[in-house]
Amino acid sequence: MRFFRQLRRRRRRQPLRWTTCYRSAASRPLPPGQVRQRRFGWTAFGRRGLDPAEVYAFLDRVAGELSAAYEALASSREEADRVKGALRRWQSEQFQARNERRWQE
Known about the structure:
- By secondary structure, the chain is mostly helical.
- Helix content is 68%, strand content 0%.
- The protein has three helices and no strands.
- The longest helix is centred in the last third of the chain and has 53 residues, at 52-104.
- The protein is elongated and about 90 Å long.
């Protein structure tokens, strides 16, 4: 009994790894591969329930949309990094030009 209490206490102390600014720590990003590999179980009495072909087609569609969204996100991050780098270079040039003018006066 004591062992289980200690184990429970240890779990609570561990920090969450998937923390972001806009998401709760409990939700993790869902990769497209995980959606494609998800398979549903069969019902007990033959072919009752959802049509597996429709479910798998839907999962493929969701995975495609997720991969497109992740690609768009990656390209927007690259664009943001490019713009930030250009802004930093421009600010450095302006700072150096201002300092040169001060030393010339």
